[in-house]
Write a structure and sequence with these properties.
Radius of gyration: 57 Å
CATH architecture of one domain: 3-Layer(aba) Sandwich
Largest sheet: 6 strands, antiparallel
CATH superfamily of one domain: P-loop containing nucleotide triphosphate hydrolases
Structural class: alpha+beta
Strand order of the largest sheet: 2-1-4-5-6-14
Number of helices: 11
Strand content: 15-25%
Number of strands: 14
């Protein structure tokens, strides 16, 4: 059941001396000059119902012994008081006599929906909290999509980071120029065999020459013997003759000998060694080139896969954003041109901070009404910021939404309640009904009032 304030009594609260109001209509204007008690009255309106954390640090009017607030709705009577002896006390009673469902402050917190009556509260909230309240008020629940979007966004961020790292590695690979074709290696063993054969031939020739040298020596010795031993046996002479014949044969044989020239083979061996070293170098270069190429291909494949994954995540994010946009388009938002841009509300492209004061007030009231509190009461401390047109639109709005708005205006007004020196101007001070404010309500006294 929706409720409004049907009676408000304030005594010795901040600048208020004594005020009693029974509001008529949906828009209640509290008028007057500065320092007269308007803000105290508006503050007292909220303090009747809200917990201690919303109370001023010094609620008792200077010179008074205590402060008392009484607020009545269609179903409840709320009394709140402060004094030096008893401290802060709150009493709540149902007008139908039914027992309270919980402590007095618990009952009040439920009907107030956990908000402080003031549309400016919404304008001053962090952007994320503004979006949360707007979604709650309009029934726009994108919690699941937001969680999914956050998860996909984080995955895409990780994939993009890995993709950048792979791209950096890929760009860091410096492929060398394609090496020259690799020829076949020369058969060094075959060439070496040729040289070995030549060396053996040379050694054989050398032995043959040595044999010639020895034969010449033997001949000389033999001739000496012939000279010295001419009288020796004919057999020795025959031997010499035979040796002469052998010598002649040997000379003929030696004369036909030809030593092979190995310089060409040595040059060929040197060329083969140089060639083979170059072949091995080229093979190494080819292996390095192949390894680098394979590494580059592997990194490119990985980078392409990461890019594809990032593109897929981007597509999923776009689908989620489209779904959120569709959901947002289906919701009637409080102001024309209003959108929810991520964790921020914008009106015609401007943030809430950049909106006009009238827009901020209207938006806060719309959010408050959308939250559908049981106590449909709001307060506007700086109503003087509203133009005549804005004031007229506000009056129409409160009637349409069945809200009760208490508006503080720095000026005198014929259609409102003027406060002077803590009292209602041109009205007698209401009776000092201390017994009514101080009397305990059986079963509802709760000095544990929640803050």
């Amino acid at each position: 059941m929706s409720q409004k304030i049907v009676k408000l009594k304030i005594k010795d609260f901040m600048r208020i001396v004594a005020v009693e109001i029974e509001p008529d209509g949906n828009l209640v204007k509290i008028c007057g000059d500065n320092m007269q008690g308007k803000s105290s009255l508006i503050e007292g309106l909220a303090c009747v119902f809200l917990g201690q954390k919303y109370h001023p640090s010094d609620p008792i009017r200077h010179g008074a012994n205590g402060a008392e607030l009484v607020g009545e709705t269609e179903t409840l009577r709320v009394e709140r008081s402060w004094d030096a002896k008893r401290g802060h006390r709150v009493k709540v009673k149902r007008k139908d006599g039914a027992p309270l469902d919980g402590s007095p402050q618990d009952v009040l917190d439920r009907i107030c929906a956990g908000i402080t009556f003031d549309p400016w509260e919404f304008a001053n909230l962090p952007a994320k909290e503004q979006v949360r309240m707007l979604r709650q008020a309009t029934g726009l629940d994108t919690t699941t999509l937001d969680a999914k979007r956050k998860q996909i966004f984080e995955r895409r961020t990780s994939v993009n980071s890995e993709h950048r790292a792979l791209e950096a590695q890929l760009h860091g690979i410096k492929l060398p120029a394609e090496p020259a074709p690799v020829p076949e290696e020369m058969d060094l063993a075959e060439i070496a065999g040729k040289k070995g054969e030549a060396e053996r031939t040379r050694a054989e020739n050398e032995r043959t020459r040595q044999d010639l040298y020895r034969a010449r020596e033997d001949e000389a010795v033999a001739r000496d013997k012939v000279v010295r031993l001419r009288r020796e046996l004919q057999a020795a002479e025959d031997m010499a003759n035979a040796l002469a014949i052998s010598l002649k044969e040997a000379e003929e044989s030696v004369a036909d000998l030809v030593d092979p020239d190995t310089s060409a083979i040595d040059a060929q061996i040197a060329t083969a060694r140089t060639h083979n070293a170059r072949v091995r170098e080229l093979c190494s270069l080819h292996e390095q080139h192949k390894a680098k190429k394979q590494q580059a291909e592997r990194l490119k494949k990985l980078a392409d896969a990461k890019r594809d994954a990032s593109d897929d995540y981007t597509r999923q994010l776009e689908e989620i954003d489209s779904e959120k946009a569709r959901m947002l388009a289906a919701v009637k938002l409080p102001l024309p041109g209003m959108t929810i841009d991520g964790d921020e509300i914008r009106v015609n492209g401007h943030t809430i901070e950049q909106c006009s004061d009238a827009q901020k007030i209207k938006l806060g009231l719309e959010i408050y009404a959308g939250l559908n509190p049981e106590l449909r009461v709001a307060r506007i401390k700086n109503g003087s910021l509203l133009s005549k047109n804005s004031m007229a639109m506000l009056a129409d709005w409160v009637r349409e939404k069945d809200m009760q708005v208490w508006l503080e205006v720095v000026d005198s007004c014929e259609d409102g309640i003027t406060i002077e020196d803590g009292r209602i101007a041109s009205h007698e001070e209401p009776a000092d009904d201390d017994s009514e404010l101080a009397a305990a309500v059986p079963g509802t006294d709760d000095s544990r009032a929640s803050g």
